[in-house]
Amino acid sequence: MAEAVAEAFERRRHLLVQAGTGTGKSLAYLVPALLHRDRVVVATATLALQHQLVERDLPALVEATTEVLPEPPSFAVLKGRSNYACLHRVREGVPDDQGTLVDLPEGSIGAEVVALREWVEGEAEAQGTGERDHAPRHTDRVWRQVSVSHRECLGAARCPYGTECFAERAKERAARSQVVVTNHSLLAIDAVEGIPMIPEYDAVVVDEAHELVARVTQAATDELSAGEVDRVARRGVRHAEGTQGEDLADAGDALRAAVDAAPAGRLDRVPDDLADALVLVRDAARALVSALPKESDDAGLTQVRGWAQEVFATAERMAAGSDADVLWVAQRDERRGGNHLCVAPLSVWAQMRDHLLTDKTAVLTSATLKLGGDFDVVASSLGLKHAEREDGSAEVERTESVLPWAGLDVGSPFDYRSQGILYLARRMPPPSRDGLGQAQLDEIVDLVDALEGRTLGLFSSRRAAEAAAEHVRERLPHLTTLAQGDAQLPELARQFVGDPHTCLFGTLSLWQGLDVPGDTCQLVIIDRIPFPRPDDPLMSARQRAADAAGGNGFMQVAATHAALLLAQGSGRLIRSVTDRGVVAVLDPRLATARYGSFLRSSLPPMWTTEDPEVVRKALRRLAAG
C-alpha cells in the first residue's frame, strides 16, 4: 500500500485502497506523505483516528526518521475556527451576552462558563492550542460562550488579540508543516465550497473515506428557522440606524407562518406563501447587512453581520429552487422554536470532481470501499468514472477532463472464514414496520443465552434497541443488558468491556464508532437490513433522480447505503487476529431477496450458515472458553 500511495502521488493518479483493521494503513500513507515533495493533507472522519495520528503515529514516525532524513518532517493539526477558543470572546465578551451567564449561581451553566474561561486563559499563558477537544468537559451551549464561527471573527488584523489567537496560530503551524491533519468537514469547506481554510497543498489522503460523501453533504447542508431569523433581527435593531431590523423580524413572522403551514418532509413544489416568505427573508437580511457599519472593532456588530450574511445566503439558496438542491421541512425542534427548513445538495460527486479531484491527487482509504465486491460504486459517488479506471494493462493519461484512478485491496490479516460465522436467519418472518416481532425477540434471547452475554446489538431504531434490551432483561436477568441512552457512549463502552456477561444494544453510532477487540464482543446481532427510511427526504430524492436518469435508484442509493452500514456493522466483530464470533442478521431478505447477493458480497468473507442450531452450538463453545 505504501508503494502504491507513493506512486499515486508521483503520477498524480487517484487511488482507492481498501485496507482492513490491523493492516497498518495509517503508516502506509503517512510515510509517503512525509516523503512527498509538497504538502499533503490527511482528512479523517472521527476524532479517535485524528488523535491516533497526531498523538501516536506521526510522533513515532518523526522520531524514527531523524537519522535517515536530512531534516525532521513536520506535521500539524488544523480544525474549523469554532473548534478553537476565542480570546476576544473570553476577555471582552459580546455585549448582548455579557453579565447574565457569569452571575448565575454555582453549579449552573454560568459556573461552567467561568471554569472554561479560566482554562482558556491557562492555555494562552502556556501557549497551548486552545482546542475544544482538550478542554474540560462541557456542553455545546457552554462552548459557544468562548468561541466564534469564521463569520463572527473580527479578523487577525483588527482583533487586539490577533497575535495570540489560537486559530491563527494553528493556521501558521499548518503553513509550516509537511503534513496537515484535518477532518472531512473542513476539507469539504475548503475544497468543495471554495472557502480557503487550509494552506495550499498538492495531495490529500482521505481516511475513513466511506464517510466522505455523507460529510461533504453535511457540510453543504443549510438550515433556516424563524427563531434564528428573529434572533438576528433583535440584534440588528440595536446596530442598524433604520428599520432594517424590524423588517427582518416581520419577514421572520411570515416565514414561521409559511413553514408551519407547509407539510413536513420533502417539498417537490414549494408552496407560494413559503416561496414569498423566503424572498422576504432574503431581501430583508440583505438590507440589514447593507445597513450595518462596514468597519468596526465591535465584536457584537461583527457577530450580527455574520449571522445576517448567513441568513441571507441560506434564504437566497432556498428561494432559488435549484434542481441541484433538495428542500424539506424538518419536524418541530424546541431548540429552534418550531419546524424549520433544510436544504442539501442532491448529489456531491460533481462538486468533488470539479473542486477537489481535478486540482489535487487523492488517496481514499477505508476498511469498507468495495461494495458488491467492486470499487466502482464508491468511486462513482466520489466523482470518478468507470472508464477512467486503470486495470493494469494500460495507463490512462490525466487531462483536465480525464482523471485516472486505480483500486487496490490490500486484504486483511484476519482469516474471516475460520474466525467468524455469518448467520443468515432465513426462517425468520420478514421485518415489520411495527418494530421487532416476537420471533426476533425470542431469537435474540436464544443467541445471547447461548453465549452468556458478550453481545453487541445493532438496531435500525432506538425503539427496537430498547425493546430488545427490555426483553433480554426480563428473560435473562442474570446478565447485564445496556441500551444506548442509559449513559453516555464512552461510559457504556467501558461497562461493556469491563464485564463479559454484558450486552450492549444501540443504533447508528454503535454501528461505526465502537472498537472492542477481544472476547468482550463475540456476537453481533443486526435486526434488519439498514435501508434508509422511505421518508428520508434526501435519500428518497436521490433514489428518484437515479431512476429518472435511467438507473436503478434502489440499488444505487438504498442498497448501497445498506451495504455500507452492514459492512461497517459486521466489522465490529473481528478486530484482531485472535477474535472469534458470530454476526447474526435477523432479516431473511439478506438470504432470499435478489439484492441479497450484492449485500452479502460487501461483507467480510465469513463462513455462512442458515442453521440456528449450528450457531447456538458455536456460541456455547465460545462461552465455555
Automatic annotation (TrEMBL):
Could you confirm whether the keyword Nucleotide-binding appears in this record? yes
Q: Which Pfam families match?
A: DEAD, Helicase_C_2
Per UniProt, residues of the Helicase ATP-binding domain are 1-267
Q: Which Gene3D superfamilies match?
A: P-loop containing nucleotide triphosphate hydrolases
- Give the GO terms filed under biological process for this record: nucleobase-containing compound metabolic process
Key words of the record? ATP-binding, Helicase, Hydrolase, Nucleotide-binding
Reaction(s) this enzyme catalyzes, per UniProt:
ATP + H2O = ADP + phosphate + H(+)
The record's listing under InterPro entries reads: ATP-dep_Helicase_C, DEAD/DEAH_box_helicase_dom, DinG/Rad3-like, Helic_SF1/SF2_ATP-bd_DinG/Rad3, P-loop_NTPase
**PROSITE patterns from the UniProt entry:** HELICASE_ATP_BIND_2
| Transmembrane intervals | none
Q: What is its EC number?
A: 5.6.2.3
Q: Highest taxon of the source?
A: Bacteria
Give one GO molecular function term. Answer: hydrolase activity, acting on acid anhydrides, in phosphorus-containing anhydrides
Enzyme category, top tier: isomerase
Would you identify the family this protein belongs to, as annotated? Belongs to the helicase family. DinG subfamily.
**Name recorded for this polypeptide:** ATP-dependent helicase DinG
**Which organism does this sequence originate in?**
Nocardioides mangrovicus
Give the lineage. Answer: Bacteria, Bacillati, Actinomycetota, Actinomycetes, Propionibacteriales
